[in-house]
Amino acid sequence: KVYNFQGFQTPIINKYTLSNGISCYGIDNHSINLIRLDIRIYAGSTFQKKISVARACINLLQEGTLHHSAEEIAEKMDFAGAYYSTSSAREYVGITIYFPKTATESILLLLTEMLTEATFPEDKINIFKQKIKNELAIKLEKNAHLGYFKLIESLYGENHPYGQIANLNNVDAFLREDIVDFYNQYFHAGN
């Protein structure tokens, strides 16, 4: 039996174009004093020259800028009551952040700084690499992940961007310069 939805209305999606040409889409809900901001950058793993660079780049944005250390960024986010997470996929990397409307200006300034002036400190890169290795060590003990890795390898082959999978050997292959080059190439308003 099929039931009709009663009282459900599709939210109105507003489109905004910023002065730099970036398109933004929003759903207004004035009853909630919270903003969720999703930023998607066309810079996923298919664009990287070395495995894990796209993921490292998006994850390490919060680890320091020209004006703020990782600790200062974390403190500013915490003080504002913001929740920040990143994601990386084949085509896109992204940031999702929730923050109170009253913190809009301070959070947007901080995000702008992270997206335009990230420094990628070497010590934070080394910690990130170790984190990836630890995650991989756990995944390599699980049949579901081993099966997924084999499926991807057989579907695409290791030379296709979709067939590239991080392993314990290739995680150390990328350098800070690779992340900085990737950042400079893909993290801009036109992308």
- Helix-strand topology string: EEEHHEEHHHH
Which strand order do you get reading across the main beta sheet?
3-5-4
Compute the number of helices: 6
Shape: globular
Distance between the termini: 46 Å
Strand content: 15-25%
Structural class: alpha+beta
**What does the main sheet amount to?**
3 strands, antiparallel
3D architecture notes:
- 40% of the residues lie in helices and 16% in strands.
- The chain has 191 residues and is of the alpha+beta class.
- A hairpin with a 5-residue loop joins strand 1 (14-17) and strand 2.
- 20% of the residues are buried.
- It has a 3-stranded antiparallel β-sheet, with helices on one face. Strands 1-2 form a two-stranded antiparallel ribbon.
- It has 6 helices and 5 strands; from the N terminus they run E-E-E-H-H-E-E-H-H-H-H.
- The protein has helices spanning 53-60, 70-80, 104-117, 122-139, 143-156, 176-186; strands at 14-17, 23-26, 34-41, 83-88, 93-100.
- Helix 1 (53-60) packs across helix 6.
Could you name the key traits of this structure?
191 residues, alpha+beta, 3-stranded antiparallel β-sheet, 5 strands
Question: Summary?
Answer:
This protein has 191 residues and is of the alpha+beta class. The chain has six helices and five strands, in the order βββααββαααα.
What's the structural blueprint in terms of helices and strands?
Layout: E1 14-17, E2 23-26, E3 34-41, H1 53-60, H2 70-80, E4 83-88, E5 93-100, H3 104-117, H4 122-139, H5 143-156, H6 176-186
Antiparallel strand pairs: 1-2, 3-5, 4-5
Helix pairs in contact: 1-6
